[in-house]
Design goal:
- By secondary structure, the protein is of the alpha+beta class.
- It has 3 domains: 108 residues, no CATH class; 57 residues, no CATH class; 101 residues, Chitinase A, domain 3, CATH 3.10.50.40.
- Helix content is 56%, strand content 12%.
- It has 10 helices and 6 strands, in the order ααααααββααβαβββα.
- The strands form 2 sheets. The chain has a 4-stranded antiparallel sheet. The protein has a two-stranded antiparallel ribbon with strand order 1-6.
- It is elongated and about 85 Å long.
- It starts with a helix and ends with a helix.
Length: 278
């Protein structure tokens, strides 16, 4: 069933049909498909696999999804013919694929669910994950320069402008008129930013200003800036109650993955042992 796996994986990995892949992509696809085929063999020869069934509606839905990727039925038929499949063998391969998915889902569902105590422990052990950093809503006017003479002229312009930048509206109008940054079209609005998103030269002023304060001229690698702070959003720690469900979802997801991986390792070992004894 490697032909179907290559068809499926080509769309999943490259969003293209197998015939549209280049040589490197085909080589990568072949290796992944072979590994996937080995995993499927181990899974479907397990004791649990005998109890797995797939509803016809699920199979038909998966077939419809595949057909929707091709403009016409003829193009799909040509693709299938090129890899040695027809409608019957395609349905058989998809059914096999769905049995694997169903069985892995059943294995995952047997994982022990995380408790509130587990969630609280995770919350305590990962404090940085639940801290919202302070952010600032900032505007700027940027004047670029190519030589010392232009730099002096830019500084002189800022000296004339600063007394007129009395509110958000006047700053926005000055940015629209004078700024060399594309943000001039939005009144110089840089957006709501946290530390680490600006040039290092700008951060001390950007995060040291009060609301409505305008900075002195600051030089960065791209020119001279004057900053304005429109708003400050103080940093805070998200409460456990607020994030409890998200933590439980994360922990349960990890446990489900671990249960699947452990079970697959056992099936691969069983299959390898059976081959060694044959």
């Amino acid at each position: 069933m490697q032909a179907y796996l290559e068809l499926k994986l080509a769309w999943e990995l490259f969003q293209r049909a197998p015939h549209a892949l280049n040589d490197d992509e085909r080589k990568r696809l072949g290796k992944i498909a072979l590994r996937q085929q080995q995993l499927e063999q181990a899974i479907l020869t397990s004791r649990e696999a005998a109890q797995v069934s797939v509803p016809d509606a699920t199979l038909n839905e998966r077939l419809a999804t595949l057909r929707s990727r091709y403009p016409t039925q003829d193009e799909l038929d040509a693709e299938l013919g090129g890899i040695g499949l027809n409608e019957d063998s395609l349905s058989e391969a998809i059914l096999r694929d769905l049995r694997v998915e169903t069985l892995l889902e059943q294995v995952a569902s047997q994982a022990e669910l995380a408790s509130d105590a587990d969630a609280e422990r995770y919350y305590r052990d990962h404090p940085d994950a639940f801290c919202r950093p302070e952010t600032r809503t900032l505007r700027h006017i940027l004047l670029t320069f190519n030589n010392a003479r232009e730099q002096v002229k830019a500084l002189a312009l800022f000296d004339r402008l600063r007394p007129t930048l009395v509110d958000e509206d006047s700053f926005a109008k000055a940015a629209l008129r004078h700024s060399h940054c594309p943000t001039a079209m939005q009144g110089g609005l840089l957006g709501t930013l946290k530390r680490g998103q600006l040039f290092p030269e700008l951060e001390p002023s950007a995060f040291g200003m009060d609301v409505r304060e305008v900075s002195d001229a600051i030089e960065s690698p791209i020119g001279l800036h004057v900053l304005r702070c429109d708003a400050i959003q103080r940093g805070e720690t998200v409460s456990f109650n607020h994030t409890r469900e998200r933590i439980l979802e994360h922990l349960n997801g990890k446990r489900r993955e671990a249960a699947q991986k452990a079970w697959i390792v056992c099936q691969l070992a069983r299959l390898q042992s059976a081959k060694s004894m044959a």
